[in-house]
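Design request, tokens follow.
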């Protein structure tokens, strides 16, 4: 398994083969399995992502925090500032995030709390680029490799490094995936990863009442926008001055310096506001009042 983004990109250049092919071969060697087995596993994840989106779109689930309900569906309205595609991508991400909060089956990519970012971004990019299933699988392969590298080298946990390690990493994975789908270079993929993580450096994890609802659902929306923005910048030739691997290290260092109140404990940030405390009291009062 690749240790760094730079190593992965360098190996691709050395072999003069597409990045997704190099990743696929590496995964087969690391896992001691066949290409068909890896592709089957990826396809299952993609199928679950698609089903979670379909199920989420057909529902308007009940959530433990009443104030957070019916938010995604409001994005299914005429666009004002965002283009139609971006607004719909945000809608999809929020719907999947709501579906996760209502205990629906999702793919934790990389976590349950950030599960709307990658599928919404991949499926919208597929639609915008008029691609087929194979190209989406290529994007998912690249995204998965990026997530694995960041997870092994740093963390994917909000309790270790805040939401920058959850929605931030989901954005980086998604940006890398769609740059691949758009025919971008390995260098552009490196820049897209760096840009997405830099854009949310220091983002705290502050769930109201300790539940993955507020602000998590809306942060899935910003994760999608972050991924598309970083991909567009990288594909346009905009470069990150700091390489992706150094940004990943910086993210982890920032996470270590965050106080515990800002890392998934529900004790800081917007969770530690008068409204946040009121919602928490209401949620747990309702739980205790149930027979």
């Amino acid at each position: 398994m690749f240790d760094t983004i730079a190593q992965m990109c360098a190996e691709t250049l050395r072999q003069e083969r597409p990045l997704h092919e190099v990743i696929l071969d590496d995964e087969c060697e690391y896992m001691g399995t066949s290409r068909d087995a890896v592709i089957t596993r990826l396809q299952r994840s993609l199928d679950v992502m698609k089903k979670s989106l379909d199920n989420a779109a057909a529902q308007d689930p009940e959530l433990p925090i009443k104030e957070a309900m019916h938010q995604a569906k409001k994005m299914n309205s005429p666009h004002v500032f965002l283009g139609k595609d971006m607004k719909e991508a945000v809608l999809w991400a929020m719907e999947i995030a709501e579906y996760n909060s209502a205990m629906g089956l999702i793919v934790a990519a990389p976590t349950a709390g950030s599960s709307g970012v990658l599928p919404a971004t991949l499926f919208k990019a597929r639609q915008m680029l008029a691609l087929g299933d194979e190209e989406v699988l290529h994007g998912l392969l690249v995204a998965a490799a990026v997530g694995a590298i960041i997870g092994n080298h740093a963390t994917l946990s909000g309790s270790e490094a805040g939401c920058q390690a959850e929605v931030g990493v989901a954005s980086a994975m998604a940006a890398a995936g769609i740059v691949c789908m758009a025919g971008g270079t390995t260098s552009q993929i490196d820049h897209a990863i760096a840009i997405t993580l830099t854009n949310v450096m220091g983002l705290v994890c502050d769930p109201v009442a300790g539940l993955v609802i507020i602000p998590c659902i809306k942060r899935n929306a910003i994760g999608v926008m972050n991924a598309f923005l970083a991909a567009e910048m990288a594909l346009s030739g905009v470069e990150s001055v700091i390489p992706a691997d150094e940004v990943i290290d910086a993210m982890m260092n920032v996470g270590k310096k965050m106080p515990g109140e800002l890392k998934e404990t529900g004790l800081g940030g917007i969770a530690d506001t008068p409204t946040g405390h009121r919602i928490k009291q209401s949620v747990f009062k309702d739980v205790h009042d149930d027979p």
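Comment from the thread starter after seeing the answer: thanks! The chain is about 65% helix and 0% strand.
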